[in-house]
Known about the structure:
The chain is α/β, with parallel strands linked by helices. The chain has 3 domains: about 5-105, Beta-Lactamase (2-Layer Sandwich), CATH 3.30.450; about 115-330, P-loop containing nucleotide triphosphate hydrolases (Rossmann fold, 3-Layer(aba) Sandwich), CATH 3.40.50; about 350-450, 3-Layer(aba) Sandwich (Rossmann fold).
Amino acid sequence: MNLSNELKKLINNLPLFVQAHLITHNQSQELVEVLLDLGCRPEARFINESEYLSQKLISWQDLDYVIKRISKFSNENRAGIERTLHRISCIRNRQFLIHGLTCRVGRAIFGTISIIRDLLESGKSILILGKPGTGKTTIIREIARILADEMEKRVIVIDTSNEIAGDSDIPHFGIGRARRMQVSTTELQHKVMIEAVENHTPQIIIVDEIGTELEVLASRMIAEKGVQLVGTTHGNCLENLIKNPSLSDLIGGIQYVILSDEEAKRRGTQKSILERKAYPAFEIVIEINNSTSWVIHENVKISVDKLLRQITTFDQIRQFNVVENLQIKYHSNISFKPSLPISLSLGQNLRNWNQRNNENYYHFKFSLSQVIKIYPYSISSNFLREVFNKLGLDFILTNNIQKAHIIIGLKTHLQQNLKLKKLAKQKKIPIYSFNQLSLYQLTKFIKCIC
């Protein structure tokens, strides 16, 4: 069986009798971790199952064999293998001797964040929520590469346990051109976050496992300096984050407010209520419950306010698999539509654009039988395909502006591209700009022009 070079590097550091079984195993590419506990049989955990690798029990000599071939354990009891993403964690006894190892496979998986490409292009700070083992670190590693290589941003990765960029002074290729700052001990992560902003002028800071009040405070300070943040923390959903006193400041913090009798009566609530006390450090929250279905809160401020008022939130669910395209669904127990603003109201968008450019396009409409050629600017192609497929319209995404019928993009990006606007004016191609784009708004817009 052909194993990847990185997986071989992990297997080659395991006891010989474990190596022999894994090399010939038909599920090696689905290996998640290998457990080596003193006096127990070695166990391999795969994506959907686990099994023992041998009848032989693990001895002190077997553990020592592995320990001598990896890097030194940190104060977090974690070690690695140089130039790889693998993580070896140890379990110690009361005498501080190692009697168990968890050898976790690290992989740089490309294409994992196509589901949220449009959110990255928005420039907003993003917080990823999920339980341990849901792939949060893999996701932000890919985010770092996309932002640094494809979007050409100045990205700095705060790597506390060397899980994001590997256990070496040379970062793993999985983060692309992003720079990596290592953290000697977990307690210093918040200081390195601030140092990165003050010394290295990043546009984006990426940090894994925000978990202490000092790290939360550092996140807020970075957000207030205008630097985009991409971070992860443990939790199942946004409501868990609200109830966590150490982490609630990430989404604005919670405070008790005493209402007047008249205001309480008007709202139909008690006089003592919970309210958000500040602007969220992270404007977007993504809940990772499984690898193919993510819950998106595109406006954390609104979502938190509704949860505190016990109003049903309108959750956006994005689903992705290899066979089908990206699917975006909205789920709610009540009828609710998001109200994210568009730069021009849909009824006036076309007319206002024509007035500014002195063009005779006021009656410009597409027939449902016409194939629409779109030049997308700063908008995910998968996102546009989802909308058009849902409406049953034929369309072509083109990279040639001269062949396009319309140009669709985010206002902040379009304003900076004077050359694009000049060319569109010359070719009489309408430009439709959005302050912030959602599936609902884009669907409404397409119905308006068709």
